[in-house]
Write a structure and sequence with these properties.
The chain folds into 2 domains: about 20-50 and about 165-314, 3-Layer(aba) Sandwich (Rossmann fold), CATH 3.40.50.1100; about 55-155, Rossmann fold. Helix content is about 40%, strand content about 15%. With about 325 residues, it is α/β, with parallel strands linked by helices. The chain is built from 10 helices and 10 strands. It is globular, with a radius of gyration of 19 Å. It has helices spanning about 10-20, 55-70, 85-100, 115-120, 135-150, 160-180, 195-205, 255-265, 275-285, 305-314; strands spanning about 30, 40-45, 80-85, 105-110, 125-130, 155, 185-190, 210-220, 245-250, 290-300. A 6-stranded mixed β-sheet has the order 1-2-10-7-8-9, sandwiched between helices. Strands 5-4-3-6 form a 4-stranded parallel β-sheet, sandwiched between helices. Strand 3, helix 3 and strand 4 form a beta-alpha-beta unit.
Length: about 325
């Protein structure tokens, strides 16, 4: 059996990846006990902020970095380049800092102050795009930079990169299945890059074809659920598969914001708007059934949403 030679730099990166790996995924499954109750139905949520980078995006970012390193796409000091609304960027910056790989991010200028501060603290290079163009415009800018400077950037393109959703097939879905001891009957998650929903759903279907899958999106194009996409009016990510979901539900931003307050007082955890929106969707599914085990994702907590909390509690 032949062994492919590996240079010292690649070997060092491989060792650093192994060091980081235990801090990606393996997040706890939280039982919702006070915020919602219904006889015969249980809701659980993955606390995704309890990993490197503080969000669910750590899974995709780590997998994208791993495959890029293995394929030599980040050799010779290349930057990992991508567009982001915040959380994926923080995940990239966290993993990149740990690996010693530079990261450049195209970010809408209306991203939260906390996210900008975190990204700068982690050493990310930020290219701001218009607040009116959202992540769609940020993607166009990233593509433009990649085309102009091919020797400087590796464009990861999280919206089209299969390593995004494959991270959830390999890890998120098996974690959920094991943590529920195979009792999960429903999976519910919002759509942004769509990687979490697509990958976790595909992984769960491999384990049990009877699991019911519900995707969530904002009720309107103008919404306050940062990171989510209203697919009818946005550029649909290439990794999205519209044949996966058994049902699609629309979530009102104010319902999510109200859930942040309710959940904080009922359960003692401060959720992000997207986490609260996922719970709103999970409860809507719970109201449709008489028995079952529903699992959703809490992509991150409220640490990066100071302005939202200020609006809620002033």
């Amino acid at each position: 059996m032949s062994v492919t030679p590996i240079n010292i730099n690649q070997q060092s990166l491989a060792q650093r990846l192994q060091t980081i790996a235990p801090f990606i995924g393996n997040t706890p499954l939280y039982p919702i006990k006070q915020a919602f109750t219904k006889k015969g139905v249980r809701i659980y949520a993955k606390l995704e902020w309890q990993q490197l980078g503080g969000s669910v995006k750590a899974r995709a970012a780590f997998n994208i970095f791993t495959h890029a390193i293995q394929q030599g796409l980040l050799d010779n000091g290349k930057h990992l380049l991508d567009a982001t609304s915040g959380n994926t960027g923080i995940a990239y910056a966290s993993v990149g800092a740990a690996l010693g790989i530079p990261v450049t991010l195209c970010l809408p200028e209306n991203a939260s102050k906390e996210r900008k501060q975190i990204l700068r603290s982690l050493g990310a290079n930020i290219v701001y795009t218009s607040r009116f163009g959202g992540t769609d415009e940020a993607q166009e800018k990233a593509k433009e930079l990649a085309q102009q400077y091919p020797d400087k950037y590796y464009y990861a393109d999280q919206y089209a990169n299969p390593n995004n959703w494959q991270a959830h097939v390999k890890n998120t879905a098996p974690e959920i299945y094991q943590q529920t001891q195979g009792s999960i009957t429903h999976f519910v998650a919002g759509l942004g890059t769509t990687g979490t929903f697509v990958g976790t759903s595909r992984g769960l279907k491999k384990l049990n074809t009877n699991i019911h899958l519900t995707s969530l999106q904002p009720e309107t194009a103008l919404h306050g659920l940062e990171g989510w996409k209203h697919l009818e009016t946005a550029v649909v990510p290439k990794i999205y598969d519209n044949t996966i979901a058994h049902q699609h539900l629309e979530i009102d931003t104010m319902d999510a914001y109200n859930m942040i307050k309710h959940f904080a007082r009922a359960e003692g955890l401060l959720l992000s708007p997207s986490a609260a929106a996922n719970l709103v969707g999970a409860i809507q599914v719970a109201e449709q059934i008489t028995e079952g085990v529903i699992v959703t994702m809490f992509p991150d907590n409220a640490d990066k949403y100071g302005e939202v909390l200020k609006q809620l509690y002033i």
